[in-house]
Amino acid sequence: MTPEASFTDAALRQWKQQADRTAKILHALSDEQLQQPVAPGKNRLSYLFGHLLAINDAMLPLLGLGARQHPELDAIYLAAPDRTQPQTLAAAELKQQWDQNAEALWTAFNTLTPAQWLERHTAVSEEDFAREPHRNRFAILLGRTAHLAYHAGQIKLV
Amino acid sequence: MTPEASFTDAALRQWKQQADRTAKILHALSDEQLQQPVAPGKNRLSYLFGHLLAINDAMLPLLGLGARQHPELDAIYLAAPDRTQPQTLAAAELKQQWDQNAEALWTAFNTLTPAQWLERHTAVSEEDFAREPHRNRFAILLGRTAHLAYHAGQIKLV
């Protein structure tokens, strides 16, 4: 393995570890359990999983790896706070979409070469990227891994 | 910047972002506020910060970058659950040790070349590392960044 590949391998392993741990927790929860808040008055588990799903789904176009699978999630889990939208996903849908997304991301991630991980992501212009080359796909992967861990910590409180 | 340096730069930026965010929260909390649990019956903020400090302090020997600064923290914040040890750190001590540790880690991290980040960490033997070269310093950095984010998510609930 080249040094470049060792770095992307480590980051992909860390992503996978966080993603698999979170999926395992999700699949162990019933629809009723998903309605519990992580702490009194705070977001419910279902909302946090939906929020993570929306953010992770958006990685596909952000990394230039394909179209959104579930753009409809944003209105429910990103634009609006918990308990304000009636059309939230039922447990079975959430679990199914979660697994589809996790599979799509993992497949797409593994098509990228180390050099492609260092290319710009689609939310930064060519001009800005010329000045700020750290705004690359790899930084998105690391940031989204931390985001997953951040909410996993909250989810684990229940 | 070489491709190798771009990868370590991204990981160090992500670490710094998580570390700085957590430090900012810590410094805004009073001694009284640090006694609050993140949720009813769960760990107190003071315990979570002490736990993170102990784990991060242990990165120095784990990465071969120096001796522990505060090995005494392990008995309080790693080996024992919250509310069982009388000798916890007061807010001022916690904040001071946090800043010292953050500074020591950041300085030490920045002495490593990309090739050195791919070397084995001290908890893996040479024989095991020959078979499992992914058990390197870089993997520890990514794992500890996720660990910081995981507990930061809990801390932010208060």
From TrEMBL, chains A, B:
<dbReference type="InterPro" id="IPR024775">
    <property type="entry name" value="DinB-like"/>
</dbReference>
<feature type="domain" description="DinB-like">
    <location>
        <begin position="14"/>
        <end position="155"/>
    </location>
</feature>
<protein>
    <recommendedName>
        <fullName>DinB-like domain-containing protein</fullName>
    </recommendedName>
</protein>
<dbReference type="Pfam" id="PF12867">
    <property type="entry name" value="DinB_2"/>
</dbReference>
<dbReference type="InterPro" id="IPR034660">
    <property type="entry name" value="DinB/YfiT-like"/>
</dbReference>
